[in-house]
């Protein structure tokens, strides 16, 4: 799937350290992001956001004239866009507060450039989906919006559970998702004892997405651990 | 407070035993006294002996010399009253003048039961009359009307037992009333002492029987509270200091790490320079991990890390950690083997998911850090005897017996209360130990069956 359109998103970066701002701008630029504005204080951030209308904000928590949590609340009053906290405050309470206020992610300094880019891209992908994203697999395509599989021109409907399981796998495409995480995605917070049901659902999903379900190439079993969805262009 | 009923039981036991012993002692003393008094019953015997000794000859009645001497020694006089004349026909020499010389039947009855002119009298039966012995005045007290109702005598054992029972019951009631007040004032004192042992703040009412004791307990509590407050303050300051330093290092380290990361992947740089940047990235990561570890270790050590214990499936947590490592695309020289039977899907315990995940993650990372040449890491969960054990083992270089002994039994330099210059190992295993202790679990380090290092983490299962 092509995500080039995400590189055009307007990003507001707020941190009181000029050198850190330069670093993050440089990391984002290298990955293709061009529309980036920076601010060093809460008031500056508010002024910039009024004219700039950002589509993603990366905020520090400790700022000279206030804190990032309050800033996020004020920014979100005018427009609802994703917020990523990038801060040296790594306490659980701070993280919970950030997430509780509606942050989309929380990163603790120091960080690797790759990690920052991975998270920024993931937030943008989640927040700005294309109209009808078709996910290409080896033998089929998934249309999550219509909850169906397109295989050899045939449209096969997904059940709600199959959709939930596939969505959880797709969010982590190329990575193993544990049996427990998949059960939680399909059956909620208390997913004890659904392992056999999950296996049955996986079998049915394979019948829908694989050319040869007994030798799967898109939905791979990682014995005892979980499953992995292999997407063609990811 | 379990000791209070025990105390009451003991007191009641002692009280009942004391009562019983007193009764036995009283009976024994009474017996001894009665036995000693038995010799006083001899006036009747003496009177009979005198009667038997008295004989008649041609000059009248005579008493043997021995007997005469015997009664003279005890200052006793004697008369012999003839059956037919009812007159005194024989008498001892020192007979008081006030003693009548003739008697009627009623006089006989009276003197047998009581006295003649205040002299206690005792009779002995002779062939033709009655011998009467008169003892000195006030030497004996005689019961003049010795008769009891037959039923009273027949019921005597029952009556005695009833009286005893009533006495014991009365003593018991008096004891309970008297002690209940004492117990009432002892109870808060006991509660206070118990609360002191758990370092609770104690404030007892300083009134009543044990007010002085209560005041002392209050004072002790105040001292303990102040001391633990100061200790806590010091610990908090230390943990805050570590947290502050680690916070302040994060931003500059971000710059080092970020630019080094960019240089590492800059294709315009030479391979050599990119290699140098990679070293900076690797060492920055080590510093980041050290900062995180130091912060967590100090918080766990000073109980400042909030635990959110919830019923969790341990297998799911371990599985997630293993999957996270595999998803991180770790170096190919390391493999992680999941050794849990597919049928074994659940093992529940009270767990702080993030912290325990961190502990298991530390163990896997530990195996990698100490085996640069690569190794296989084996992870399994075993449930036995209400204990769930996570085993992380490897087939790497392992450790010597001495090192394992040290790791198991010597405190880490960071929490050691003695001066030490020896830095035995990093913070990774210390954090694992702290986390597992915070879960009331156990950690055991040993040689693995695969020839390397093994750490077992055991937690109590909840059903």
Describe what you observe in this structure.
The complex is a heterodimer of chains A (234) and B (463). By secondary structure, chain A is α/β, with parallel strands linked by helices. Chain A is 41% helix and 21% strand. Chain A is built from 8 helices and 14 strands. Chain A is elongated and about 60 Å long. The model of chain A has no long low-confidence stretch (mean pLDDT 89). By secondary structure, chain B is α+β, with helices and mostly antiparallel strands. In chain B, 54% of the residues lie in helices and 16% in strands. Chain B has 12 helices and 14 strands. Chain B starts with a helix and ends with a strand. Classes of the chains: A alpha/beta (234), B alpha+beta (463).
Largest sheet of chain B: 5 strands, antiparallel
* Poorly predicted runs of chain B: none
Order of secondary-structure elements of chain A:
EHEHEEEHEHEHEEEEHEHHEE
Shape of chain B: rod-shaped
Termini separation of chain B (Å)?
A: 31 Å
Helix content of chain B: 40-55%
Mean pLDDT of chain B: 86
């Amino acid at each position: 799937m092509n995500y080039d359109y995400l590189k055009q998103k307007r990003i507001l970066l707020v941190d009181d350290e000029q050198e850190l701002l330069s670093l993050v701008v440089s990391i984002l630029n290298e990955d293709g992001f061009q529309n980036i504005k920076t601010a060093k204080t809460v008031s500056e951030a508010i002024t910039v956001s009024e004219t700039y209308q950002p589509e993603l904000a990366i905020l520090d928590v400790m700022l000279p004239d206030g804190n990032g949590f309050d800033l996020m609340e004020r920014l979100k009053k005018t427009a609802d866009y994703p917020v990523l906290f990038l801060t040296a405050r790594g306490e659980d309470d701070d993280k919970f507060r950030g997430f509780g206020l509606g942050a989309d992610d929380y990163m603790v300094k120091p960080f690797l450039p790759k990690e920052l880019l991975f998270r920024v891209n993931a937030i943008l992908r989640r927040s700005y989906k294309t109209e009808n994203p078709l996910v290409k697999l080896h033998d089929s395509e998934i249309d999550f919006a219509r909850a169906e599989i397109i295989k050899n021109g045939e449209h096969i409907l997904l059940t709600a559970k199959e959709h939930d399981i596939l969505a959880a796998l797709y969010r982590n495409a190329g990575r193993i998702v544990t049996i427990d995480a998949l059960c939680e995605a399909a059956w909620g917070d208390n997913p004890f004892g659904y392992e056999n049901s999950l296996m049955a659902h996986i079998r049915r999903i394979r019948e829908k997405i694989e050319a040869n379900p007994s030798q799967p190439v898109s939905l791979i079993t990682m014995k005892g651990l979980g499953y992995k969805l292999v997407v063609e262009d990811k | 407070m379990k000791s209070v009923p025990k105390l009451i039981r003991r007191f009641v036991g002692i009280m009942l035993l004391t009562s019983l012993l007193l009764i036995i002692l009283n009976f024994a003393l009474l017996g001894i006294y009665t036995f000693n008094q038995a010799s006083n019953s001899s006036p009747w015997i003496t009177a009979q002996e005198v009667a038997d000794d008295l004989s008649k000859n041609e000059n009248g009645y005579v008493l043997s010399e021995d007997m005469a001497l015997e009664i003279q020694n005890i200052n006793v006089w004697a008369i012999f009253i003839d059956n037919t004349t009812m007159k005194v026909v024989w008498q001892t020499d020192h007979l008081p003048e006030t003693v009548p010389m003739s008697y009627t039947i009623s006089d006989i009855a009276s003197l047998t039961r009581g006295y003649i002119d205040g002299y206690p009298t005792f009779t002995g039966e002779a062939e033709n009359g009655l011998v009467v012995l008169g003892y000195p005045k006030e030497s004996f007290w005689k019961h003049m009307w010795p008769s009891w109702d037959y039923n009273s005598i027949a019921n005597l054992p029952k009556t005695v037992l009833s009286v005893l029972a009533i006495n014991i019951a009365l003593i018991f009631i008096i004891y309970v009333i008297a002690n209940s007040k004492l117990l009432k004032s002892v109870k808060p004192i006991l509660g206070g002492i118990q609360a002191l042992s758990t370092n609770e703040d104690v404030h007892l009412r300083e009134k009543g029987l044990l007010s002085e004791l209560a005041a002392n307990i209050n004072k002790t509590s105040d001292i303990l509270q102040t001391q633990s407050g100061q200790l806590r303050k010091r610990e908090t300051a230390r943990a805050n200091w570590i947290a502050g330093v680690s916070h302040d290092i994060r931003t500059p380290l971000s710059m080092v790490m970020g630019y080094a990361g960019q240089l590492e992947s800059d294709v315009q740089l030479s391979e050599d320079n990119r290699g140098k940047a990679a070293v900076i990235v690797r060492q920055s990561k080590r510093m980041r991990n050290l900062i995180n570890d130091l912060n967590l270790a100090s918080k766990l050590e000073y109980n400042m890390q909030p635990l959110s214990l919830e019923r969790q499936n341990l297998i799911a947590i371990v599985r997630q950690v293993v999957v996270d490592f595999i998803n991180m695309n770790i170096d190919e020289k390391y493999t992680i083997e999941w050794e849990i039977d597919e049928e074994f899907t659940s093992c529940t315990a009270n767990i702080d998911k993030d912290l325990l995940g961190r502990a298991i993650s530390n163990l896997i990372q530990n195996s990698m850090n100490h085996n640069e040449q690569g190794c296989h890491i084996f992870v399994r969960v075993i449930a036995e005897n209400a204990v769930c054990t996570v085993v992380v083992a490897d087939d790497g270089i392992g450790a010597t017996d001495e090192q394992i002994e040290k790791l198991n039994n010597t405190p880490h330099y960071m929490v050691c209360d003695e001066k030490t210059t020896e830095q035995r190992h990093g913070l990774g295993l210390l954090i694992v130990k702290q986390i597992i202790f915070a879960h009331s679990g156990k950690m055991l380090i040993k040689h693995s069956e695969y020839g390397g290092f093994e750490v077992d983490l055991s937690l109590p299962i909840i059903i």
